[in-house]
């Protein structure tokens, strides 16, 4: 595929876990902002279908398989992005498992799996794309953390909450690592987001209680707004914004 615009003017992003849910909405926001987007997901068929829905012409949106457990997959996805669009400007680390297993029922194997996908996956993405961005003198990384990582979780599992707390720390570490290389690293910590996966995982009565009694604004987080925040943090003008976690939680957690 040959991009229709000069690679010197293209803005290019890769989003992990983007075949559905919040990742898909973030891709929509990036496309609307003029980005070319690589939809990556462990499910190659779902990623391809998502990319086709987002851009049937395949001129600005393509897909690739990416298992965030594998560093080689990040390396291959980056190479694929560069081969297709000439470069990459933004990585959005969105892929995650969101189990709701009760803390005393979490097995050692489940705990390790969630930490590996959610936390190690972010770490590997920041390593691979961060070094590439640093070498070319510009880049943006946005990590998806969570309110659960700040408060311990109300509906999510302990392993999920722990992984998201770790993501906020990794964000600071990589922000410091690349601060003088033109690369910024930030995270976004949403509360419950109004996407189908949340409504599927959280029982309706429990979700209603969370919205009406725990969220001061009595509304779930808007996924389109999260997408617009990704666009904002990726802007060239956002060069002094790094190492921060941006809260979108309806006032549950204030600081």
Keywords:
disordered N terminus, seven-stranded parallel sheet, 7 strands, about 15% strand, single chain, Rossmann fold, about 260 residues, about 45% helix, alpha/beta, globular
| Count of strand segments | 7
Radius of gyration: 17 Å
Count of discrete alpha- or pi-helical segments spanning 4 or more residues: 9
Number of domains: 1
CATH architecture: 3-Layer(aba) Sandwich
CATH uppermost class: Alpha Beta
Order of helices and strands: EHEHEHEHEHHEHHHE
Roughly what fraction of the amino acids lie in strands? Answer: 15-25%
Biggest sheet: strands side by side, in what order?
3-2-1-4-5-6-7
Distance between the termini: 47 Å
CATH topology: Rossmann fold
Main pleated-sheet profile:
7 strands, parallel
Oligomer: single chain
Task: Kindly report the average pLDDT value.
Answer: 94
CATH superfamily: NAD(P)-binding Rossmann-like Domain
List segments where confidence is low: pLDDT < 50 over at least 5 consecutive residues.
Answer: 1-7
Structural class: alpha/beta
């Amino acid at each position: 595929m040959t991009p229709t615009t000069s690679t010197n003017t293209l803005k290019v992003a890769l989003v992990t876990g983007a075949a559905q849910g919040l990742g898909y909405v973030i891709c929509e926001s990036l496309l609307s902002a003029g980005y070319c987007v690589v939809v990556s997901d462990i499910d190659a068929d779902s990623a391809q279908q998502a990319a086709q829905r987002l851009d049937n012409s395949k001129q600005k949106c393509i897909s690739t398989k990416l298992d965030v457990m594998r560093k080689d997959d990040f390396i291959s996805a980056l190479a694929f992005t560069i081969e297709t669009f000439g470069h990459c400007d933004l990585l959005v680390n969105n892929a995650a498992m969101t189990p709701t297993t009760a803390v005393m029922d979490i097995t050692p194997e489940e705990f390790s799996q969630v930490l590996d996908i959610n936390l190690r996956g972010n770490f590997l993405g920041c390593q691979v794309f961060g070094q590439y961005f640093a070498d070319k003198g510009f880049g943006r990384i946005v990590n998806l953390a969570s309110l659960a990582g700040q408060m311990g979780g109300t509906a999510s599992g302990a392993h999920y909450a722990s992984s998201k707390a770790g993501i906020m720390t990794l964000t600071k570490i990589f922000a410091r690592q690349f601060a003088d290389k033109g690369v910024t690293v930030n995270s976004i910590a949403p509360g419950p987001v109004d996407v189908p996966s949340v409504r599927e995982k959280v029982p309706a009565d429990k979700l209603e209680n969370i919205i009406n009694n725990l969220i001061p604004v009595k509304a779930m987080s808007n996924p389109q707004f999260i997408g617009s925040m990704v666009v904002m943090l990726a802007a060239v003008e956002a060069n002094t914004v790094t190492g921060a976690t941006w809260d979108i939680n309806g006032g549950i957690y204030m600081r």
